Amino acid sequence: MGYTGLRIHHHPVLTFRRGREVTIYFEGEPIKAFEGEALAAALYAAGHKILRYSPKHGRPRSVFCMIGKCGSCIVEVDGIAKRACQELVRDGMRVRRIKGYPVLKEAGGGAKPVEEVEAEALIIGGGPAGLAAAEVLGTHGVRTLIVDDSHRLGGQLIKQTHRFFGSRELFAGLRGFQIAEKYEEKIRSFESVDVLLRTTAIGVFKEGVFAVGEERNYVLRAGTYLVATGAVENYLPFENNDLPGVMGAGAAQTLMNVWGVLPGKRPLIVGAGNVGLIVAYQLLQAGAKPAAIVEAAPRIGGWFVHAAKVRRYGVPIYVRHTIVAAHGEEGVEAATIAEVDERWRPIPGTEKTIECDAVLLAVGLTPNVDLLRQFGAKTKYVPELGGLTALRTEYLETTVPGVYVAGDVAGVEEATTAIIEGWIAGYSMLMKLRGERDEWMKERERLLKLLKTYRSSPVSARVRAGLEKVIIGGEEVA
Ligand SMILES: Cc1cc2nc3c(=O)[nH]c(=O)nc-3n(C[C@H](O)[C@H](O)[C@H](O)COP(=O)(O)OP(=O)(O)OC[C@H]3O[C@@H](n4cnc5c(N)ncnc54)[C@H](O)[C@@H]3O)c2cc1C
Ligand code: FES
């Protein structure tokens, strides 16, 4: 049985309620794991970072996103290709690495049953944006269905251990995972709101939205739709950027804060925005010692308070530096960093090699717009909002009538703004279904004002500039 010391046993904020101890088999070798934890986390904790080999060059692959989006963790589970980050451990499961392309097989050798479900409102994505919209719809008795591909509601919030800023209405003072728990409880209390977890919406068809679940598949139809699918983490080009142990900072958070497994004992972090700084602090809390943080910009992009905390623990922050290579055979063992010029090009002769066992990329996110495009919504590339995102009215209706957007998929921002957008989209959907009412219009205007207040600080200047490029008039919804 593998033991690597990556399991977190003591944490100042989190308590890991692990399931019963079971045995799973990886390439025939028995491994100790906990029932109900992500298979990828169990394998990583047991020292099995290599999960598959790339189809063309046979390069080793491990987790990169931990949210089911990158495909680098696909393994064979009891003969069926599955994403190890989304698959939950069961006693006795037999897991094998895949070399080349996975083989397409259906569970039990036959097609899964397809269930047709109708609702008044379909929400794709149960992160803060989707949950906030569901809150409005549930409060008004609208038959609502939320689908989410994760095992829990809350989106990115379930891995945030730091306290949020803002107002009481927006959960200031609570930690992200506590906000997710509160929201989940509230949503589950609405009789008119149903939730399908571990279910991925993969396509928009004439018959409805097709979604793949564990036991069955679904065709989902509704009077209004909200796409609240969040964002995916960005990659960075450098030598060996596909080595096992190179992963998104959000993936590292999922491993350590959701599953209680360290991504490494001495990771190097790339990016000193809020995400990079917060992850560094969370690693320290969990018992790891980040090797360093590198940042290509001339100054730290995140809040000073986060940077100060990390520095107090002796983590060096190298500004005007980038990563140029990761080194190792089967996983990260070291990385080379170098100083950059004003155009962020590495300056030859300034290279330094740093020993580390993981490289965590905190270099931004890109809106997850695939489904929006399948709905036929017009999109536009807006760098200030993270990339391609939907054109929409200020009430968040896209160019396709009845299809709304909210949260990071509408422009990478924050949970607080995602929640306010979710509320606004919720009122828009409510009025689409039930007609306009004075009190609903007034509440929506109040929320719009609140959103503007949140975006009025100099920190949000980029977002404001981006929004100017995507907000359209109602007459353009056709
Ligand atoms: C390290 C870090 C720290 C942060 N700190 C803060 C902070 O202090 N304050 C703050 O306000 N914000 C913070 N944020 C940002 C915040 O977490 C996000 O902006 C917010 O979660 C976005 O909400 P969302 O609902 O749009 O998307 P998400 O939270 O990403 O939720 C999207 C959901 O959709 C699901 N999904 C996606 N595609 C599909 C599909 N095809 N089918 C079914 N389900 C799907 C996903 O599984 C996910 O559950 C932080 C983010 C990070 C990474
Ligand atoms: S799909 Fe599992 S790590 Fe990306």
Describe this structure in words.
The protein has 478 residues and is an alpha/beta fold. The protein has three domains: 89 residues, 2Fe-2S iron-sulphur cluster binding domain, sarcosine oxidase, alpha subunit, N-terminal domain (Ubiquitin-like (UB roll)), CATH 3.10.20; 230 residues, 3-Layer(bba) Sandwich (FAD/NAD(P)-binding domain); 120 residues, FAD/NAD(P)-binding domain. 24% of the residues lie in helices and 26% in strands. Strands 9, 10, 11, 12, 13, 14 and 27 form a seven-stranded mixed β-sheet that branches. The longest helix is centred in the last third of the chain and has 20 residues. The protein is globular. Flavin-adenine dinucleotide (FAD) binds next to helix 2, strand 12, helix 4, helix 5 and helix 8.
Secondary-structure content class: alpha/beta
Number of domains: 3
Count, helices? 10
Low-confidence stretches: none
Task: Please give the share of residues in helix.
Answer: 10-25%
Bound molecules: flavin-adenine dinucleotide, FE2/S2 (inorganic) cluster
Which percent range describes the beta-strand content? Answer: 25-35%
Outline type = globular
Task: Name a few traits of the molecule.
single chain, 478 residues, alpha/beta, Ubiquitin-like (UB roll), FAD/NAD(P)-binding domain, seven-stranded mixed β-sheet, five-stranded mixed β-sheet, binds flavin-adenine dinucleotide, binds FE2/S2 (inorganic) cluster
